Amino acid sequence: MEFFFQQLTNGLAIGGIYALIALGYTMVYGVLKLINFAHGDLFTMGAYLGLTLLTSLALHQHLGAFPGVIVLAVMVMGLVGIIGILLDQAAYRPLRESPRLSAVVSALGASIFFQNLVMMVYGAKYQYYPKNILPKTVITIMGLPIPLMRILILLTSVFMMVALYLFIQKSKVGTAIRAAAIDQGAARLMGINVNRVIMLVFFIGPALGGAAGLMVGLYYGQINFTMGWVYGLKAFTAAILGGIGNIPGAMVGGILLGLIESLGAAYISLAWKDAIAFCVLIAILIVRPTGLLGERVAEKI
Amino acid sequence: MMQNTAEKFPKRYIVYGICAVLLAFAPLLLDSYWTDVLNNVGLYAILGLSLNLIVGHSGLFNLGHAAFYAMGAYTAAILNTLFKIPILLLLPASALTAGLFALIIARPIIHLRGDYLCIVTIGVGEIIRIALINDIFGITGGANGIFGISRPVLFGLKINKPYEFYYLIWIFAAVTVFLFFRLENSRFGRALNYLREDEVAAEGSGINTAYYKLAAFVLGAAWAGMVGTIYASKMMIVSPESFNFWESVIMFTLIILGGSGSIPGVLMGAFLIIGLPEVFRGFANARMLIFGAAMVVMMIFRPQGILPPHPRKYPIPRMDKTNRMSENEGTS
Asked: How far apart are CA A230 and CA A236, in angstroms?
């Protein structure tokens, strides 16, 4: 029982991280119908920028552990968000009217660029986050111990997802984003500045990805310049699992993928962990071709 | 005969001819290192052509082509090391396993829309790689792979040196170009292009879209399987890491960069994607950084690819009397 509980909470924490990254994929896809393959590398940037700021500013020593990490997270999110906007302006904006696959190749090129940029600046070796930034407390719930870190990660990611959902659903800007996702031309006619919406999407998505990068750094303690590929691919899987372009879908897909992976690794086979996740994905897509929460799109004639 | 038809042919055919002649004599001018680079270019050119059938002509978003390449390479490696069957005889066997595998995989998923198909093909590629690492059925040799694959023997000549491989690979490439060129201009190729442009209209015109998509997918996979065989005998070792996601990305990128759906474009793409990192070798660490930036810049300046396909022209035959007469007589 305790083993199961550990795997469950671990799966939820990883799932939360996947969901945060998946939101970046799904938001960009929703508005631009573009798979931003460089998103995983923006996540890596978040992890590395977090490490740099952590060691150079040492906010956790000046402000105390929790306020320090929160300020750090805000800074990382802001910086990665700005990188996201720059990425869009440089690599995607000139390709808005081009064939879709050209933009995909541009995204792959940007991904290679970022990955090697990180490698050149920080080196190819694993980098380690300083230990004990956040207290390694273990909380007991109903007689079952859980590390505080896991709860914090899950709570933070759920908090961000709920905030984003409310922002998209309730605010005026969120309505504009939804309108641009449905029909850019019509949105433009209704007086929505679609370019600004796209900029905003390219700020929010990478910002959430950057936050996820920081979380991975704090949770696992070690980061590498190639981790964006792995996490990016998983998060993209999660976004597809839930139905790409659909924000609650990315959340459900992320959490589900985290659980499948963690429980699959524990009860079926550790070596086949990633294969199990993909098998479940394929099985779900065979039954529901547009993902769990994806809308069934009738082919236009 | 060349001179008579030269006026009818566009000028680009002359350029292609010059390139072909240059390629034919290239090993005489290059050292073994650069010959080997050209060998890699050749392998990726054939892989690109096979994927071009799926991505370029049918518009199916396949980012897992390395899986079929791996199937071919492993089939050849296993049969060659266990039963000592000569490599070149294994070409059909590799094509068959890769093609059958593609058929089984693609049948249930071929109807998925663009990006969903993309992630499924990525997933299939990863599943295959993980299966190979985990030594599935105890025959793939795990993470170390299989070594001791024999060299190909052609008419009693053992193909060993880079320049010998050069001719093997590029003759294979030339055959591929010829066959795929014929395919492109056939009823089959036209059907693929039609369903790429508008699936509903194609279906409405009586094209069995599921059948054609599947056929393109299986044919492309089988071709990649054959390239896998050549690769296995060239390296004499196959290991799972040679067939990772990155390989699929390279194959995909070279098509889009060169010109999706265009044979000269794919060849050009193979030269750029495999050749450019070699040229940038002087930049050491910054090599891939520049390469990534170059991909973005090239896409921005040539969104259609460097050599996009030429629109097909089907001239309407003149309906004057003399022409009809000659048509009736069966001469022209």
From this structure: 10
The Cα-based distances of A120 to A51, A107, A129, A274 in angstroms read: 16, 20, 19, 29
User: Cα(A258)–Cα(A6) distance, rounded to whole angstroms?
Assistant: 13
Identify whether the C-beta of residue A214 lies closer than 8 Å to the C-beta of residue A47.
yes
- The CATH code that applies to domain B10-310 is 1.10.3470
Other CB atoms within 10 Å distance of the CB of residue A209:
35
Distance of CA B209 to the CA centre of its chain: 22
Question: Do the beta carbons of residue A235 and residue A21 sit within 8 Å?
Answer: yes
For the segment B126-161, what is each residue's pLDDT rounded down to a tens digit? 888 888 888 778 777 777 888 888 788 777 777 777
Q: In angstroms, what separates the C-alpha of B207 from chain A's closest C-alpha?
A: 16
Q: List all residues of chain A from 112 to 151 with a beta carbon under 8 Å from chain B.
A: 112-117, 119-120
pLDDT 10s digits, B10-29: 777 888 888 888 887 777 77
Does B132 touch chain A if contact means CB atoms closer than 8 Å? no
A63-86 pLDDT per residue, tens: 777 788 888 889 999 999 999 999
Are B44 and B252 spatial neighbours (Cβ–Cβ below 8 Å)?
A: no
Q: Of how many residues is chain A composed?
A: 301
* B260 Cβ under 8 Å from any chain A Cβ: yes
Q: Which residue has the tokens 């896998």?
A: B228
Asked whether the beta carbons of residue B260 and residue A99 sit closer than 8 angstroms, the reply is yes
CB of B200 within 8 Å of a chain A CB? The answer is: yes
Picking from A278, A280, A284, A292 by the largest number of B CB atoms within 10 A of its own CB, the best residue to mutate is A278
Does any CB of chain B come closer than 8 Å to the CB of residue A267?
Answer: no
Cβ atoms within 10 Å, residue A3 = 9
Question: Any idea which residue has 């990128």 for tokens?
Answer: B253
Q: Do A271 and B115 touch (CB under 8 A)?
A: no
Domains located in chain A, CATH noted: 2-259 (1.10.3470)
* A244 interfaces chain B, CB cutoff of 8 Å: yes
Burial A38-52 (b: 16+ CB within 10 A, else e): bbbbbbbbbbbbbbe
CA distance B127 to chain A (A): 5
Query: Is the separation of the CB atoms in B27 and B163 below 8 Å?
Result: yes
Q: Is the distance from CB of A151 to CB of A10 less than 8 angstroms? A: no
CB distance B292–A102 less than 8 Å?
Answer: no
| Global ipTM | 0.82
CA B24, chain centre distance (Å): 20
Report pTM.
Answer: 0.84
B259 touches B12 (CB < 8 A): no
- B305 contact residues in A (CB cutoff 8 A): 102
Question: In Å, how far from its chain's centre is CA B109?
Answer: 22
> Domain residue spans in chain B?
10-310
Q: Closest to A99 (Cβ–Cβ): which among B285, B288, B303? A: B303
Tell me the three state secondary structure of residue A85.
Answer: helix
